[in-house]
Design brief:
0% strand, single chain, mainly alpha, 501 residues
């Protein structure tokens, strides 16, 4: 772990600096005294009150340091645990560095008392005293680095990194057989619940950076798990009602058949974060949708259809929640990420066809909920995707075109102008790449509109030369802006459309 490596590095440097200073100090004193022999500087075979004088304040210092450490930990850990996750206390106690440091300080304090007790009238336990002195030096050299280590340990970013590391480590140990599969699964469930708790509490406190780190950490965890998944034993993919409380027997059967319980567990945390973010932290929504897109894209790329399916289902959950809340901003981001996912699936026509159907289906739900602008956004994005699929000669291109043309642009009381423009942009793009037959299909789809409106749309698209939208948005590009090459085909498509009326 990075924090542990930092602690070791800082401890080595502090110990080295102390040793160099103390040795230089001894050498100067020894040189100033005329370089006396060892019999002059050693207490071997001698006893003196000096030994107890050295050990007594050392014992008090040890006790103070131990009390200070325990007080700091006793206050900081529960407070941080209350803010993030109660399991933090267990994490702290299981950490090897914390165990070693607390044990070292406690042992040193006891050892100094033991050394002081050993001193007798005619007995000088010189090696015990030396061990006590050098042990104290080691403990004090580690003290400052250890305080920094504790502070970093309590940082929520570090906690999230530890939870991800523990989760992946459990999977790796299940893979190499060093950990029982059920125990490994239990660790995964527990660590992911803790991760989800931290993300949710961060959103509640408007701690956006921690929430975003947790979301992105889930994405990275799924990518690393994907590289290991094919080598895991069959028993790893079997779960029961204890693992997913509340799930029906049929749902568990599907999970076991599709072998994707891990992805479901991780992405459930992202979904819970998404539900919270809709009301409290809208800037987390793009991060969640982007992470989901990356997860789905990587799963499709490595041929893991069940993992891709889980990610796509969660995309649909996001869309449904946004429609229920009539959150246009969320839909604006989600449709964009969904279209980006589609552009990465042009070599997988079956997946692309399914995505096109869902695109259209949720756009219709938005229309039914009275969110006309969201429907137009969906039409624009699906039109962009259909054009992209055509350019890449995807086998699903015609199906996507059909889904775009199924959008109703003539909704009362007046046509959906952005949707009409989206179809115009699609038609002009088809002409640009030499697909006149498909362009004629789009033109025929617009024949129910008045010629004056069609001419107006063509004029506005040609005259729109400002690429950036006049307000700050996540996409920033103006929906109506076209490249000069694309724009040049708008009049041709307008003529083709007017010929159909």
């Amino acid at each position: 772990m990075e924090s542990r490596a930092r602690f070791i590095r800082s401890f080595v440097w502090v110990a080295l600096a102390m040793c160099l200073f103390f040795m230089a100090e001894f050498w100067l004193e020894w040189w100033h005294a005329g370089s006396p022999g060892m019999d002059k500087v050693s207490w071997v075979a001698k006893n003196n009150a000096k030994l107890v004088d050295v050990l007594s304040p050392m014992a008090r210092a040890y006790n103070n340091v131990l009390a200070m450490l325990i007080a700091t930990i006793g206050l900081a850990i529960p407070l941080t645990a209350n803010m993030h996750t109660p399991k933090l206390i267990d994490m702290f106690l299981r950490d090897r560095t914390n165990q070693v440091m607390l044990g070292l300080i406690a042992f040193g304090a006891a050892h100094v008392l033991w050394a002081a007790w050993l001193v007798g009238p005619d007995f000088a336990p010189i090696w015990t005293v030396r061990l006590a002195v050098f042990g104290a030096m080691v403990g004090w050299a580690a003290l400052i680095p250890y305080f920094f280590y504790v502070v970093r340990f309590l940082d929520p970013s570090t906690i999230l990194a530890r939870l991800s590391h523990d989760t992946l480590r459990a999977v790796e140990r299940a893979l190499d057989g060093s950990l029982d599969l059920e125990q490994a699964q239990a660790i995964v469930h527990e660590r992911m619940h803790q991760t989800g708790t931290i993300i949710l509490k961060s959103i509640d406190r408007a701690d956006r950076s921690v929430a975003l780190e947790g979301i992105w950490g889930c994405k990275i965890l799924l990518q690393e798990y994907g590289a290991l998944k094919s080598r895991l034993p069959d028993a790893w993919f079997v779960v029961d009602r204890g693992d997913f409380v509340g799930a029906s027997q049929e749902a568990l059967s599907i999970l076991n058949d599709e072998r994707n319980w891990f992805e479901l567990r991780v992405m459930t945390q992202m979904y819970l974060a998404y539900q919270n973010a809709l009301a409290k932290s809208t800037d987390a929504i793009p991060a969640i949708s982007d992470a989901t897109r990356v997860v789905a894209s990587h799963a499709a790329a490595r041929g893991d259809l069940p993992a891709y399916t889980v990610a796509q289902r969660f995309f649909h959950n996001y869309l449904r929640e946004a429609i229920k809340r009539k959150d246009v901003h969320a839909l604006y981001d989600l449709f964009y990420q969904y279209r980006q996912l589609g552009s990465e699936l042009t070599d997988k026509p079956e997946l692309l066809r399914e995505l096109g159907k869902r695109f259209h289906g949720y756009a219709q739900q938005a229309a039914g909920a009275g969110i006309a602008f969201a429907t137009q956004i969906a039409g624009y994005d699906l039109g962009w995707l259909a054009l992209e699929a055509t350019k890449r000669e995807s086998a699903a291109a015609d199906d996507l075109l059909g889904e775009v043309l199924a959008f109703r642009h003539g909704t009362a009381p007046e046509p959906l102008l952005l949707l009409v423009k989206a179809k115009f942009i699609l038609g002009a793009g088809l002409l640009e790449c030499g697909h006149r037959v498909q362009a004629e299909r789009v033109a025929a789809n617009l024949r129910d509109l008045p010629p004056a409106l069609l001419s107006q749309v063509a004029t506005e698209l040609v005259e729109q030369t400002q690429r950036a939208f006049w307000e700050v948005t996540d996409r920033q590009v103006n929906f109506e802006w076209l490249s000069p090459e694309h724009r040049a085909f708008v009049p041709q498509f307008a003529a083709l459309t007017l010929a159909q009326t």
